[in-house]
Specification:
The chain is an alpha/beta fold. Helix content is 32%, strand content 14%. It is built from ten helices and eleven strands. α6 (139-157) links the parallel β5 (118-125) and β6 (163-168).
C-alpha cells in the first residue's frame, strides 16, 4: 500500500495487553506502490473497517487546520484515532511561563469528537520542544513548573484523550545497559530520575481515566540478545512499577528498516507484556533504502541533518541519535 508521511498505524490487540500506537507510517523509497489488490481493498472498505474489532488504525496531525477536504475525508474514511503532531507538546501548550494555549488541541479534539475518532495525547514531559523556563532555577522550582504544566494540560484535556505519552525519550543511546542509562539532558540534570515518577503521578492525578505510556526509540533493538537499550528500558520500567508509578504501557517508536529483526520486536513486546504493560508501536516508519530510518534523506548517517519522515515540519530535526 502506498502510505503517505501523514499516515500512521495504531493497532489494538484486545485479547492481550498490547496496544500498538503509531503516529506516522512512511516509505523512504518515494513512489513505492502497493499491489493493486491491496489498494483496491483499502479503498473499498477503508483501513479501519478492514481491522475493525482487531486493531485501531490511526494517523498523526494537528487537525483540522492545514488539511484540505480530501485529506480530511481520507482520515474519516480510514482511521479510528489521531495523535497530534505538535500541538500538545510543552512548547506549544505553554510557550511562556504561566501562559497556556489550547486553541489547536481543542480544535483537534472537537473535530475528532464530531467525526467519531479517538485522540491520543503526545507528550507531557520531554527535554526537547520544551521552553527553557522549565529548566531555570532549583530542582524544587523545576518540579513545581512541571507539575503545574502536566496538571494544567492533562487536566484540560481530560475526557478528550484516551491516553498520553507522558514521558518521551529518557534513555541514552549506547552505553551501560546494566543501568537505566538515563540521558544527561535538561530534566535529568535538574531533577534526576524521580522526574519520571512525578510526571506519571501528576498525569494520573489530572486524568485518572487516561492510559499513561512511556515512549522511546530503539528500545526493541537487541531484545532477543538480552542487551542494549532494551535492557535499560526494562530496568527503568521495573523501577517505575516497583515504586508505584501509574504507568500502563510502553511505546516503541518503530523507526525500522526492511531488514529489521522481527525477533527483536517480538521479544521486546513479550518482555514488556511480562511486566504487565501494554505495548505501543509509535511513529512507525520503514526505510526501504539507506541506513538512517526516519530521515527524509535515507542515506544520511544518524545524527546528520535529515528530518524524520514521521515528523514532517520545518525547523525540527529528528535523528536516531537525538
Amino acid at each position: 500500500m502506498n502510505i503517505s508521511r501523514r499516515d500512521v498505524v495504531k493497532l489494538f490487540a484486545g485479547s492481550i495487553p498490547a496496544y500498538y500506537l503509531g503516529r506516522s507510517v512512511s516509505l523512504s523509497a518515494a513512489g513505492t506502490a502497493a499491489p493493486a489488490a491491496a489498494t483496491a481493498t483499502a479503498a473499498t472498505i477503508g483501513l479501519k473497517d478492514a481491522y475493525k474489532g482487531k486493531f485501531l488504525i490511526g494517523t498523526a496531525g494537528d487537525l483540522p487546520g492545514g488539511y484540505n477536504e480530501a485529506e480530511l475525508a481520507n482520515i474519516k474514511a480510514n482511521y479510528d484515532i489521531v495523535t497530534p503532531e505538535n500541538c500538545m507538546k510543552p512548547q506549544p501548550t505553554q510557550p511562556s511561563e504561566g501562559n497556556f494555549s489550547f486553541d489547536r488541541p481543542d480544535a483537534l479534539a472537537a473535530w475528532c469528537q464530531q467525526n467519531g475518532l479517538k485522540v491520543w495525547g503526545h507528550t507531557l514531559c520531554w527535554h526537547s520542544q520544551s521552553p527553557q523556563f522549565f529548566f531555570q532555577g532549583t530542582k524544587e522550582e523545576g518540579l513545581a513548573k512541571l507539575q503545574k504544566h502536566i496538571e494544567t494540560v492533562a487536566g484540560h484535556m481530560a475526557g478528550k484523550v484516551m491516553g498520553w505519552d507522558v514521558v518521551n525519550e529518557s534513555i541514552n543511546d549506547g552505553g551501560d545497559n546494566t543501568t537505566e542509562n538515563l540521558r544527561n539532558s535538561s530534566w535529568y540534570r535538574l531533577v534526576g530520575p524521580e522526574v519520571l515518577n512525578k510526571a506519571f503521578e501528576w498525569a494520573h492525578k489530572a486524568d485518572p481515566k487516561a492510559l499513561l505510556y512511556y515512549n522511546d526509540y530503539n528500545i526493541e533493538q537487541n531484545a532477543a540478545d538480552s542487551k542494549g537499550k532494551h535492557q535499560s528500558s526494562l530496568l527503568l520500567l521495573r523501577r517505575l512499577l516497583d515504586q508505584g508509578a501509574p504507568i500502563n504501557g510502553v511505546g516503541i517508536q518503530g523507526h525500522w528498516h526492511l531488514d529489521t529483526r522481527i525477533d527483536n520486536i517480538e521479544k521486546a513486546i513479550a518482555n514488556y507484556k511480562a511486566l504487565g504493560l501494554q505495548v505501543a508501536v509509535t511513529e512507525l516508519d520503514v526505510t526501504a533504502t539507506g541506513t538512517n530510518s526516519g530521515a527524509f534523506n535515507p542515506n544520511a548517517p544518524a545524527g546528520d541533518a535529515g528530518r524524520c519522515s514521521s515528523w514532517s515540519r520545518p525547523g525540527y530535526r529528528y535523528t536516531s541519535s537525538s
